[in-house]
Each structure stands twice: as C-alpha cells, then as structure tokens.
Design brief:
Number of domains: 3
Number of strands: 12
Distance between the termini: 38 Å
CATH architecture of the largest domain: 3-Layer(aba) Sandwich
Number of helices: 11
Structural class: alpha/beta
Radius of gyration: 23 Å
CATH class of the largest domain: Alpha Beta
Helix content: 40-55%
C-alpha cells in the first residue's frame, strides 16, 4: 500500500517555486519572478529536496540544471498547478476583450514568419491587452515536448509527421510544400531540370551547419548530387541572401509567397519530388484547462487555416489531427 502524505503538513507553494526554478534554470531569476529573496528560494528548495529525497537541481556555471527526477516531475507538477488555477479561476472564464496577460509561443523562424502576422492581427482585434512572446524552436523537434512540459511555452508550432505523446493536443494547421527560390531573372529559369538544378550553387538552411538535407537525399535516390555553397541557420536570412545572389534554395512555399516581393524572389517547382511537411500546433492537454491557452490555440488554428497558400501551391487539403 502506498504511503499517504499528510497534505496539511506540505506547503503547496513549493510546487510553484519548483516550477519557476525549472523554467528559469536560475535561482536568482526565479526569486525575482516570485518576489522572494534568493535565500528564501534556496530554503524552499531545501525543503523540497528533503520531502522528495532528491537534489532536484544541481549547480551550474550559468545557474542550475534539473536532475532526472526533477525532469520527470515537470509534467505532473505542471498538471497540478494548471488544475488548481482552473479551479481558482471560477466560472468567469477568459474574456479576450478584457484580458491582460502574455502567452509564449515556440516555433522555427520559417513557420513563425508565416503564422505570426495573421495571428497577431487577430489578437489585436479580439484581445488588445494580450501580448505574445516567441521562443525559437530548433531541431530536433522533440525539444518542443520538453519546452511545453516545462511551461517554457504555452503552444509550439512545428512540422510533425507522427503522433505526439498522448499528453499533448495536436491541431493540424496546414501542409507545406518546398519550392526552389531564386532571384528574379535567375538563369535557372521557371522550370529547372534536375541537371540544371544540380549545376547551380545552392544555399541550405541548416541549424547545425551540416551541408546535407532532404534535397540531397532526394537527389541521391536518383544518382544526382548538388553543391552547397552556403549554409545559414534561418529561413528569413536565406531569402535575403538568395535575393541578392545567384544562389538557389529549397524553402517552404508559403514563406516565399509572403516575402517574394520584399526580397525580389521568384519560385519554381522542384525538379525532383520533395516530401511535404505537416505543420501542427501542440499544447499540453492539461494546459487547455486554462481557457486563455485554449482560446489562443483555437485562434491560431483559424488564422492559419484562413491564410492564403502560395500561388504555385497544390490545392490545400484538410489534414486530420493525429
């Protein structure tokens, strides 16, 4: 039989302290957020360590890092706090027009450049007191699950080709094709051949600097190779460079459609088949007990669905959530 803990002897504020230190990874910053002194936070962590029989956080030159036990507790503690907040919020619910709060989103720069403008416009119309913060999401995208579990972001928007863990709600936003982006007047022309494409100098968006990507895999399947002359870590930087040089790049179609005029770009269909990406919005199911997070997720889904696809896109298809 499991040993029962007398909750009357436990300060549940320690869970708030735990969640804040886990998110900030720094005792001083956690103390500032909680309006406590660093010594009070350290004292609270000491009580938690004794209660849970684990160090929880280890010292690091830049702050603290969680132990395996602390990482395992992130999701259940977050669930408990979300349910408590939902109970205390009462029946009034979330009123966008009157709300004054800030939400955090996580996305890659290529996706955020597509979904943020219409989302921000919709938020300004419906909820002028609501602010948004963006956290950059980098591959491997499993890091998004950790970010959401730690409440470092309310919603993550990312390419996902498999079902997420059951604790997450996934909403399909759109499907994304890749096109060949080049400067206006580029000699490659509007209908490149595989050989002509391979002969061009390529730019690759690589977060690690690795000059090998999905295009190389598609070319290798046909016995072809290309030369990657430059790698950059961001899609928007890629568009700026391609627009000012003879480099070509395979980039998301909607991104080019939105920013082609700004950078002097044209898009052509790739001469080899490239995989289509499914872009989804993820949120912890327990976080959706917060009516504000649920409202923002629904708004994101509606604005992304209504956004126009690129002019050379295949007809958009409604995607079933995983």
């Amino acid at each position: 039989m499991l040993k029962e803990i007398d909750l009357s002897r436990v300060d549940l504020n320690l869970l708030v302290l735990f969640a804040t230190v886990l998110e900030e990874r720094h005792v001083g910053r956690a103390a500032a957020r909680l309006n406590l002194s660093p010594s009070a936070v350290s004292h609270g962590l000491g009580r938690l360590r004794r209660l849970l029989r684990d160090p929880l956080f280890l010292r690091h030159p830049k702050g603290v890092v969680p132990t395996a036990r602390a990482d395992a507790l992130a999701a259940p503690v977050g669930d408990v706090l979300a349910r408590v907040r939902a109970v205390l919020a009462g029946p009034g619910g979330f009123d966008p027009a009157a709300a004054s709060r800030r939400f955090a989103l996580a996305a890659t720069d290529g996706i955020s450049a597509v979904v943020l403008p219409p989302l921000l416009a919709a938020v300004r119309r419906a909820a002028p007191g609501v602010g948004l913060g963006l956290r950059t999401l980098l591959p491997p995208f499993d890091a998004a699950f950790e970010m959401l579990d730690a409440r470092a972001a309310d919603i993550a928007v990312l390419p996902l080709d498999r079902a997420p863990p059951a604790r997450f709600e996934a909403r399909s936003l759109y499907e994304e094709d890749f096109v060949v982006a080049m400067r206006r007047g580029h000699p490659l022309g509007p209908a490149p051949t595989p050989e002509g494409w391979c002969a061009a100098e390529h730019l690759l968006v690589s977060f690690t600097g690795d000059p090998h990507g999905l295009v190389d895999e598609a070319l290798a399947a046909r016995g072809l190779r290309r030369r990657v002359a430059l790698t950059v870590p961001e899609f928007m930087l890629a568009l700026a460079v391609v627009g000012a040089t003879d480099l070509v790049a395979a980039v998301p179609e909607r991104l080019v459609a939105l920013h082609a005029a700004r950078f002097g770009l044209v898009a052509a269909p790739p001469p080899v088949s490239l995989p289509r990406s499914r872009i989804v919005a993820l949120a912890p199911r327990v976080a959706l007990l917060d009516e504000g997070v649920a409202w923002l997720l629904g708004l994101l889904e509606r604005t992304a669905e209504a956004a126009p696809a690129g002019p050379s896109s295949a007809p958009r298809r409604r995607v079933r959530p995983p």
